[in-house]
Write a structure and sequence with these properties.
Elements lengths: L1 H10 L5 H20 L8 E8 L13 H9 L1 E7 L6 H10 L3 H4 L5 E4 L4 E4 L13 H7 L4 E4 L5 E2 L4 E2 L3 E2 L11 H13 L8 E6 L3 H7 L4 H22 L6 E8 L4 E2 L3 E3 H7 L4 E6 L2 E6 L5 H8 L6 E5 L18 E5 L4 E3 L6 H5 L9 E2 L9 E2 L11 E7 L6 E2 L3 E2 L3 H8 L22
Helix pairs in contact: 7-9, 8-9
């Protein structure tokens, strides 16, 4: 739209005298007419939102990333995208998409138990578990903008058999999901489409460095290879945007769900519960876990027993969580919450493979041990979001984005309202985040 007005102004001469004043008036009238019939300033803008899993800023250091580097010159970026607590994937995928704290969207861990539903949430990404917040694609569709959500959690309500976006890929088990290359190809196809009903919000999830960092370490060659792959994906999306017709514009937003930190000693939570005859079910992983006490179990006794492991984790009662948690007081967060202290990480009994139980790891092994050759993790997450290693990358480039702007810090919940603002839409209801105005071109 701005291009149209500039063409009008230029067609009336050199900018002096009555002709220029007339051209300005004509342009203003044209703008008013178009606005009156519903053509917004960002009417032809497409916003592509990308989430790479487990992408810590330090992973870019020492790796050739020409496309991320270009965004630092032509767009906005930050090394401090602060995740929500717990700094695990599914709570942050959900906050990234909804702009809500976990206390409002209800996804409080990768794995948790909901006593009210009598059911376990186990990294399934089903939107039926949401407690009222809208993913950006659902909010866009509600406002009449077609959206696509590929490989993202919360794109599908399994119970109601309803897709929350016009374009999604089927909701299948993790091992059956399309590859990153397939998701990229589909995203580019949607971006290039000339269909009048093409998506103007395209949300793409990619596996990123997460798995390789867990298994091989944050600075491993395998992680560097994944970073180069991510940079190539970004480059192809940027090229796709540049190839759009002159009357169309697009914006690229790139983020992640959490960072990574090196870990070693394992908190064998199943062994601790068995050793002290604590009657409870446990859920969680990495830097955090919940305990749901059986009826009749004494919270005072359990809290005192677990206090003996203060070198490895801190124990909080529900209702007394630290301010950074934003978890609320709901039953999903259990009776007690354990927050690990790096480099310790928690391996709840539910997360151990079947052979670990056969080996007696939850009965006869140590409460805390160094995994050595047992195949333990090299890096993990889930800790206090104030820890810098938990922070993630943020890049933004294209229409509406400031050039060469480093953003000191932003929150995971800010991605949703920022993307919606770039589309000229209102954020979902409710929303806790704010627009990252410092990354954007000031409004005229």
């Amino acid at each position: 739209m701005r291009r149209v007005i500039r063409v009008l102004l230029n067609s009336f001469g050199d900018g002096s005298g009555d002709i220029m004043r007339l051209s300005v008036r004509l342009a203003a009238v044209l703008w008013s007419v178009l606005a009156a019939i519903g053509v917004a300033q960002a009417a032809e803008r497409t916003v592509i939102v990308v989430l790479f899993d487990g992408f810590a800023p330090a992973m870019v250091d020492g790796v050739k990333t020409p496309n991320f580097d270009l965004i630092k010159t032509e767009g906005a970026w930050s090394r401090h995208l602060v995740p929500v607590y717990p700094t695990m994937s599914l709570p942050n995928h959900t906050s990234f998409a909804t702009g809500c704290w976990p206390e409002h969207h209800g996804v409080v861990q990768n794995k948790f138990f909901d006593p009210d539903r009598g059911a376990d949430y186990d990294e399934n990404g089903d939107a039926d578990w949401l407690k009222g917040c809208e993913p950006m694609w659902q909010a866009a569709e509600r406002q009449g903008v077609t959206a696509a959500a590929l490989n993202f959690a919360n794109r599908w309500n399994v119970k109601k058999k309803v897709a929350l976006a016009s374009v999604i890929n089927p909701f299948v088990p993790w091992e059956e999901t399309p590859s990153d290359e397939q998701i990229l190809a589909r995203g580019l196809e949607l971006l290039k489409s000339n269909d009048a009903k093409r998506p103007r919000l395209i949300a793409l999830y990619f596996r990123g460095p997460d798995h390789e960092a867990h298994v091989n370490g944050v600075t491993s060659p395998q992680v560097k290879a994944e970073v180069r792959k991510a940079d190539a994906i970004v480059g192809r999306l940027m090229a796709g945007i540049k190839a759009l017709p002159a009357e169309r514009e697009a914006t690229l937003i790139v983020g992640t769900d959490h960072g990574m930190i090196a870990v070693d000693p394992v908190v064998n939570l199943g062994r601790i519960l068995n050793r002290h005859w604590i009657y409870a079910r446990d859920a969680g992983d990495g830097g955090s876990a919940y305990l749901y006490l059986d009826k009749g179990e004494s919270i005072e006794r359990v809290e005192k027993v677990l206090g003996g492991y203060s070198q490895a984790f801190t124990v909080y009662r529900t209702g007394q969580h630290p301010a950074y948690s934003h978890l609320g007081h709901g039953s999903r967060v259990g009776d007690l919450m354990l927050v690990a202290k790096p480099p310790y990480y928690i391996a709840p009994s539910s997360s151990l493979p079947w052979y670990a139980h056969l080996m007696g790891m939850t009965w006869f092994w140590s409460d805390i041990f160094v995994p050595g050759d047992l195949g333990g993790l090299k890096a993990s997450h889930g800790y206090d979001p104030a820890i810098p290693e938990m922070h993630g990358i943020f890049y933004a480039w294209g229409a509406g984005i400031a050039r060469g702007k480093e953003v000191a810090q932003l929150d995971m919940i800010d991605i949703h309202p920022t993307a919606m603002s770039l589309l000229g839409l209102q954020p979902g209801v409710p929303v806790d985040g704010k627009v990252v105005s410092e990354a954007m071109v000031p409004a005229p």
